[in-house]
Automatic annotation (TrEMBL):
Sequence ranges assigned to domain Mannitol dehydrogenase N-terminal in this UniProt record: 30-278
Upper classification of the organism: Bacteria, Pseudomonadati, Pseudomonadota, Alphaproteobacteria, Rhodobacterales
PANTHER family membership: MANNITOL DEHYDROGENASE 2-RELATED (PTHR43362:SF1), MANNITOL DEHYDROGENASE DSF1-RELATED (PTHR43362)
Identification of the protein by name: Mannitol 2-dehydrogenase
GO molecular function ontology, one term from the record: oxidoreductase activity, acting on the CH-OH group of donors, NAD or NADP as acceptor
Amino acid sequence: MATPLNQTALESLPRDVTTPAYDRDALSAGIVHVGVGNFHRAHMAVYLDRLFGQGESHDWAILGAGVRQGDAKMREALKAQDWLTTVVELDPAGLSARVTGSMIDFAEVDPAQTIARMTDPAIRIVSLTVTEGGYFVDAVTDGFNAEHPEIKADAASLRAPKTVFGIILEALRQRREAGTPPFTVMTCDNLPHNGKVCRRTTVELARLSDPDFADWVDGNVAFPNSMVDCITPATSDRERQMVAERFGITDAVPVACEPFRQWVLEDDFPQGRPALEKVGVEFVEDVAPFELMKLRILNGGHAAIAYPSALMGHHYVHDAMADPRVASWLEALELREIMPTLAPIPGTDYEEYRQTVATRFANPEVGDTIPRLCLDGSNRQPKFILPTIRDALAQDRPIEGLALEVALWCRYCAGTDEAGNAIPPNDDNHAELKDLALKAKEDPAAFLSNRMVFGALGQELQFLRAFSDQLHMLWNDGVAATLDRYLAQG
């Protein structure tokens, strides 16, 4: 019989399960983390758990927080487990499980409660995983979207905010009035220049109602950039059953993830930070080159395999990577068109990183799915693919494969795979994308006219011609023949 996970059960768990090697009662919170999803619990929470196990930084425990309905459900599940999480690393050489204890509380999912926790002088970092689409970025200008309804609502009532950025601002205002130094805002989301984007969203929201306070935030609050990486599939009954059967633990919200983790972080923490360098976090002056490497090779690689694999009927990522056509397409696109846009990083081998990424994608234990990779294309394409196309055009480099990736996304948005099966909606802009994708079958420019996604890039003639050529072939000859044509170009 599996043992329900909680603090008292830790001593009775199987010996092959790693449990907290420290007194959790002796921990105190130094971080409020907003967005306690799978990635956070597989990444930052594990780094801190390992650090606490070394007897280090026990005043930097995590206090969870959230702003969405799903956060409340997560809070209730974790509360029943004394805030413990089972993290299973899906290593093909053998699965391993760790119960992390680095989170010690979780604020009620209520703005006032979260603000109260953030104003505690012991809190010196507020960290975020609110998804790459959660920063109110205008897709056309790539600037702050001041017209978003949630932003307009917060700007009208900044002392009663609903968004995470409004909550952060009100907490900072109260700390300022109390003479408490401002916390560092550390985003762990997967978007280019994430700290810079987080700063812009926070400051510009403040500027809508209080320009003087906005200037104070801009001049006094640190927003370090970071690069984070660990493939973490969604939790389903499959993972819950595996944790129960393999490790004897009943966990309502376990996390399964690959054994690879990476965290590169700018060292800008005026109020201090945990000693994360002791558990493998790399602190650098400028994270941008590492971030770009990951966004283009890993995230761009995910996008590259997602849509042809979905159209050809693959469900799991490892099955797609076992298809020689898909694996060869990924390798060719990255070597020919993605990696050449990257400036060298001293001490970093892009080819070694690419091979590591391909191995990670092919890991059968992860069970990552193609539908997950296809999610939210209208937010992901402008971050992971379109900037590469812009750089390639500026550098007078080929873009045929990148245009093919966009054409594959367009073909996917048309709503059926090659066998005629319906593709369920998985994008907030699904209806508009489907309409434009179907029109693009006859007029490819129709899809690129979506300025919310493509901005001015949709008007670039070289891109339009390459996209049109690839899309016509996809509809006329199918995915396999189109990929084969690209691969044969050598």
